[in-house]
Amino acid sequence: MTVPGVTQKNLKIVGTRPLRPDGVDKVTGRAKFGADIHVPNMLIGRVLRSPHAHARIKSIDVSKAQALKGVKAVITCADLCDLPSEFIPAGEMMVNFKDMTRNVMAREKALYEGHAVAAVAAVSDAVAAHALALIDVQYEVLPHVMDVSKAMEPDAPLLHDDMYTIGVEPKPAMPSNIAKRVEFGFGDLEAGFAKADVIVEREFTTKPVHQGYIEPHACLASVSEDGKAELWCTTQGQFIVRAFCAKLLGMEVSNLRVTASEIGGGFGGKTVVYLEPLALALSRKACQPVKMTMSRTEVFRASGPTSGAKIWVKVGATKDGRITAAEALLKYQAGAFQGSPVQPGAMCAFAPYDLENVRIVGFDVVVNRPKVAAYRAPGGPISEFAVEGVIDEIAKKIGMDPVEFRLKNAAKEGTRAPYGPKLGPIGLVETLQAAKAHAHYRAPLKANQGRGVASGFWFNIGGETCATLNVGEDGSVAMVLGTPDIGGSRASLSMMAAEELGIPMEQVHAIIGDTSSLGFNFLTGGSRVTFSSGMAVVEAARDVIKQLRSRAAKIWEVSAEEVEWVEGRARLLGEGKDKSLSLADLAKTAGKTGGPIVGNAAINATGAGPSLATHLVDVEVDPETGKVTILRYTAIQDAGKAVHPSYVEGQMQGGAVQGIGWALNEEYIYDDKGRLENPGFLDYRIPVCSDVPMIDTVIVEVPNPRHPYGVRGVGETPIVPPMAAIANAVSNATGYRFTDLPMSPPRVLAAIDSQRGG
Amino acid sequence: MAKQHVTTTVNGDTVEFLCGTEQTLLDVLRDELYLTGSKEGCGSGDCGACSVMLDGRLVCACLVLGAEAQGRSVETIEGMAKGDELHPLQQKFLEHAALQCGICTPGFLIAAKALLAKKPNPTETEVRYWLAGNLCRCTGYDKIVRAVMDAAVVMRTA
Q1: Interface contact flag, A689 B80, Cβ < 8 Å
Q2: What pLDDT does A448 receive?
Q3: In this complex, is the C-beta atom of A33 within 8 Å of any C-beta atom belonging to chain B?
Q4: Of A348, A354, A467, A703, which is the most exposed, with the fewest CB atoms less than 10 Å away?
Q5: How many CB pairs below 8 A link A and B?
Q6: Which tens digit of pLDDT belongs to each residue from A154-200?
Q7: Do A680 and B40 touch (CB under 8 A)?
Q8: Residue ranges of E strands in A158-289
Q9: Of A696, A698, A695, which Cα lies nearest the Cα of A638?
Q10: Distance from C-alpha of A219 to C-alpha of A256, rounded to nearest angstrom
Q11: What is the mean pLDDT of chain A?
Q12: Considering only CA atoms, which of A363, A362, A346 is closest in space to residue A418?
């Protein structure tokens, strides 16, 4: 496709702050989320889960459950296809169907506490719960391993006896828990470090944290006697759900129609399937609709958090502030199946910097924890937490202002990224300059207070995208999109369509189509929607305009070249140029000028520009309790072009607060048997309103030349810098370098006490 | 097990339903009365997504039994707008972009309405502590707090 130059001038709608089109439904409780649908003759499905972290399944006897009155179907792994190992790329992550079929329902072994082993569908929730208790599973409990370093040891309990480390030559002779080794970099590290006046190296740890979307997973499946199936579910991508479920159930994709409900948050965690294949299998067996919802406990135990990790970083620099060499070693927990985000983590690690000598090695390691899922900039926050801590420390050692040090080494257009390519135009320097210029950066601090700064990088993605604009006979436009609206994208996409067409935004009506209503769309993720669906919408609008011009030409009996489209009207060029026809005029007569007017776009969007951010944070540390209070927070980010600035700010604020939770409180806590001890919002404490201050935002706009409006994705980058910025602030407040997350009160107090010699 | 007959008032209308003894008010609202505006985020009173008013008091509907609604008055998000007129809080949530995914929004609106009934001129800190029982994972709370404070101004001057 051709993408003309970036349009930044004379914008009437893009860049303003209209009300979102789906807003009224959401403030009135009318919007239908995953669990909000009831259909006649509906059964309730529930899942039996492993109480053991690692156990061989010797037998499953479902006969008693099946015999219970009101039970309509019971399934085990035998009801899903056993698929061979097959990797397919899925946005920023890879998926393997062999692992997927085993993750949704354990096969040979249960690999984490909460791993599904069987499921039932019954006439009520109470009957379903009773039936679960009647299923007899015989386990042989095996030793388990939770820690990434222990799992890498040669005598560690082995999760998969057919897993040989990928990326190691020659191929290892023995299987291990190390699924993959990745390496990026260039230059001569030894020579680089030899040139350094100062070298800092440190080890860091992070704990797994959950995406913490407020809406638990939910779906409703209905399979008819002839094998045709409908599925309603909360997901970031109805098309990938269709693809995954069809594969796991051995169906043709055309026989499965998936509708994405409104989605109550996902952050990457709703890009995979858990209940959906089970509900379909149960419905297929019962020939009745089956609704399934996860409890909050199930969400924590059995859906993907992101990796916990161990990271080692070494950076050298000259006295005048130039980095000479940088090295990192990353060990990421994948959970029970391979596929941690170590690769993007490794690619991100030093991406904000212009380096001559750099090397990053990463390991993807399986442990007896739930399989990780994508979480906002998957992998990036972990590696940059460590890197930005070392960067900060090295700036301090050479006595240079941390923003100045970053500016001196900042990646910019033409910088070769550690993962290979040369970067296009990016806005890191602009965010750093904005940080330096911000009043926040000069505000005085009191005793026990500290300020931290950190930068962050995220790639963003494009991918397969379709959009259709159907012009109604009254001149309104129904816009069908294939990417679920997770945070206001109906607004940004309606705005771009209206801007192109030159009509009021209220005249455009965004509809999230089901899988039968348009071509394949990749999911809402990778910060791709406003970028990719935006590009598709613009192309579809230009298709509409082309048709409108030819309709006007027909009416005026001229050639289409003699008609231009200006401010929502066809105008005749040359003589008689005062003649014009509005979109509504042309829509009204469409039946007489050639039939319905429908604009289409089916693209594989490329050219998503990376988005970079710099965050500033002030903290106060209570020396008596170790509690860290966030006093002030400023998030600065390059949006390329903020289509709807309020929702861009919202992404920045939301990401920052998720980062505050990750930095200070959130972690998965397991007992010695590998059982999760805090599977609820009381004990897994995400930030509440009173934990945080207002989050100031500064939007920088360095246009992405590959998008018609200069858009780059914005949703993921805001969670990359917070943990490092907060750790740097807490370190500055206490004089003790914090390297382990979360910085919960007991840990901070222990560090303060160790300094006091106590 | 025999179901219990309950007569109650929901959003001003007299409502009758049958409920199991184990069913929560949230279950009843959502599964028996099909008022699905109240959401279940946790089922343990920690997220506030199911906030409703029970006899004028803010409660988590997941922590109240359906049978306890007998003879009482329940207000849910479905009763917040009057006809086609949104409540000032609903309007301000829209204007301030105080929602992203929107799943927590009904709970926040009910809780915020309860706050402003009690305290028409709250400070930012009071808003933050009152709403600390409602979890939002998307917005970072900034725009929610601003929307509530702005709605308070509108409601005071109305």
Answers
A1: no
A2: 97
A3: yes
A4: A354
A5: 185
A6: 999 999 999 999 999 999 999 999 999 999 999 999 999 999 999 99
A7: no
A8: 178-186, 198-206, 218-223, 229-233, 256-260
A9: A698
A10: 14
A11: 96
A12: A346
| pLDDT for the residue A3 | 45
Provide the pLDDT for residue A757.
Answer: 73
Query: Which residues from chain A sit within 8 angstroms of residue B133, using beta carbons?
Result: 688
Q: Is B142 strand, coil or helix? A: helix
Report the residue from B39, B90, B131 with minimal CB separation from A215.
B39
- In this prediction, residue A574 carries a pLDDT of 81
Structure token pair of residue A421: 């390519």
Q: Give which of A79, A614, A126 is closest to A392, Cα–Cα.
A: A614
Q: Which amino acid is at A332?
A: Y
3-class secondary structure per residue, A23-38: HHHHHCCCCCECCCCC
pLDDT of residue A88: 83
Q: Is B66 on the interface with A (CB under 8 A)?
A: no
Phi, psi for A637 (deg, rounded to 5): -150, 145
Output the pLDDT for position B25: 98
Chain B interface, best mutation among A16, A214, A657, A719, by max B CB count within 10 A: A214
Distance CA A722, CA B121 (A): 33
Whether pLDDT at A665 is above 70? yes
Per 3-state DSSP, chain A is made up of helix, strand and coil in percentages (nearest 5) of: 30, 25, 45
Task: Decide if B95 contacts B31 (C-beta within 8 A).
Answer: no
Backbone φ and ψ of A229, nearest 5°: -135, 145
Which pair of tokens denotes residue B55?
A: 């006899």
Cβ of A268 under 8 Å from any chain B Cβ? no
Q: What is the pLDDT of residues A196-245, one digit of tens each?
A: 999 999 999 999 999 999 999 999 999 999 999 999 999 999 999 999 99
ipTM: 0.98
Report if pTM > 0.90. Answer: yes
Taking the C-alpha atoms of residue A158 and residue A178, their distance in angstroms, rounded to an integer, is 10
Per-residue pLDDT at B76 exceeds 50: yes
Q: Which residues of B touch A26 (CB under 8 A)?
A: 99, 102, 105
Section A132-157 average pLDDT:
98
> Best residue in B1, B138, B143 to probe A by mutation, most A CBs within 10 Å?
B138
Report the alpha-carbon distance of residue A568 to residue A494 in Å, rounded. 15
Is 90 exceeded by the pLDDT of residue A412? yes
CB–CB contact A33 B39 (8 Å): yes
A336 touches chain B (CB under 8 A): no
Name the residue type at position A704. Answer: N
Helix (H, G, I), strand (E, B) or coil at A9: coil
* β-strand pairing of A87-90 with A93-96: antiparallel
Asked if A233 and A219 count as a contact pair (C-beta separation under 8 A), the reply is: yes
Taking the C-alpha atoms of residue A393 and residue A263, their distance in angstroms, rounded to an integer, is 41
Q: Phi and psi (nearest 5°) for A616?
A: -120, 135
Total residue count of chain A as it appears in this document: 758
- Using the beta-carbon criterion (under 8 Å), do B135 and A264 form an inter-chain contact? no
pLDDT interval class at A2 (50, 70, 90): very low
Confidence of residue A605 (pLDDT cuts 50, 70, 90): very high
Reading the block at residue A681, the tokens are 């919002």
Inter-chain contact B143–A263, Cβ cutoff 8 Å?
Answer: no
Asked if A619 contacts A630 with a C-beta cutoff of 8 angstroms, the reply is: yes
Tell me: the pLDDT tens digits for A421-444? 999 999 999 999 999 999 999 999
Is residue A316 over pLDDT 70?
yes
Q: Is B59 on the interface with A (CB under 8 A)?
A: no
Counting residues of chain A whose pLDDT is more than 90, the rounded percentage is 96
Per CB-CB distance under 8 Å, the chain A contacts of B61 are: none
| Nearest Cβ partner for A654 among B80, B100, B133 | B100
Contact A29 B38 (CB under 8 A): yes
> Which chain A residues touch B97 with a CB distance below 8 Å?
17, 20, 488, 644, 646-647, 649-650
